[in-house]
Amino acid sequence: MAGPALSVITVVRDDPAGLTATRDSLAGQVWRDFEWLVADGGSGAATLSVLAEAALAPDWLDSRPDGGPFAGMDRALARARGRHVLFLNAGDCLADADVLADLAPVLAKGTDLLYGDALEDPGDGQMRRKRARHWRWAFYGMPAHHCAIIYRRAVLDGLRLDQGYRIAGDYAFTLSVLRRAAGVVQVDRVVARFAPGGLSRRLAALGRREQYRIRRRLLMMPVIVASTIWLLQIVAASLRHISPKGYAFWRF
Q1: What's the mean pLDDT in 179-192?
Q2: Going by C-beta distance under 8 Å and a sequence separation of 6 or more, which residues neighbour residue 147?
Q3: 196 alpha carbon, distance to own chain's centre
Q4: Quick one: angle between helices 69-77 and 169-180, nearest 10?
Q5: Number of C-alpha atoms within 13 angstroms, CB side, residue 204?
Q6: Are 151 and 113 in contact (CB under 8 A)?
Q7: What is the greatest pairwise CA distance in the chain?
Q8: Which of 14, 24, 32, 64 has a 20 to 30 A CA-CA distance from 47?
Q9: Taken in order 132, 135, 141, 147, is the CA torsion positive or negative?
Q10: Does residue 46 contact residue 18 with C-beta atoms inside 8 Å?
């Protein structure tokens, strides 16, 4: 039997509020040709009880202690049946009820990688639209938040999330997909709302160090260039910390 058009993969650990928000955003979608796979990292009863409520039940659930979010993403990816894959972690939400309906015709054309804008709180408590970058700027970082990127599953054949990274594994994964992708589409639309206060924000310095390693290893980037990008990212992070509104004006 043919699988669904889309597999939505959610990883979670002890975050009932975030998981509820993610579940509700999926339950409210007009277009429903998707499956929902949840890889739980060994949460307590409060988180797992969210999945027993009536709004939306996962099509696949596996709960066990693991090595972190990338291990969970890998575990769920191995069970995905959809023609495309979206990683929507606990706390991340689709932007509105029509997102998947609007993107479905583009995905049906066999797009290898589709991405768009996301809503993000830069640190001042206000959600703003963060424009995605052109994918050719991926040497600087992810072209969009992970929750605003959809991959064609056939292009992911044999790829795994590198467990050697705690924060930037999705960056290495996306760079590998871009190397394979024949068709990349950027949509002028808000696709998702990025969860504030996540691991990537809390351990941002580690994420920048990991990105440096990825640029050196996967892109074969010279030390001086990779170091310059690292420095620019530190400056941007400092601006975000010192003046969230100033950072928002510059970036958003």
Answers
A1: 96
A2: 86, 87, 88, 89, 92, 93, 118, 191, 192, 193, 194, 195
A3: 13
A4: 40
A5: 15
A6: yes
A7: 55
A8: 32
A9: positive
A10: no
Tell me how many degrees the CA angle 105-107-111 measures, rounded to the nearest 5: 130
Number of H helices, E strands in the chain: 9, 9
pTM: predicted TM-score of the whole model, two decimal places: 0.93
pLDDT score for 220: 96
For residue 73 the two structure tokens come to 């993403």
Helix (H, G, I), strand (E, B) or coil at 71: helix
Average the pLDDT over each of 92-106, 126-140, 161-175, 187-201 and give the range with the smallest value: 187-201
Tokens of 79: 């069970």
Q: How many CB atoms lie within 10 A of CB 78?
A: 9
Q: What is the pLDDT of residues 100-120, one digit of tens each?
A: 999 999 999 989 999 999 999
Measured over the CA atoms of residue 129, residue 114, residue 3 and residue 39, the dihedral's sign is: negative
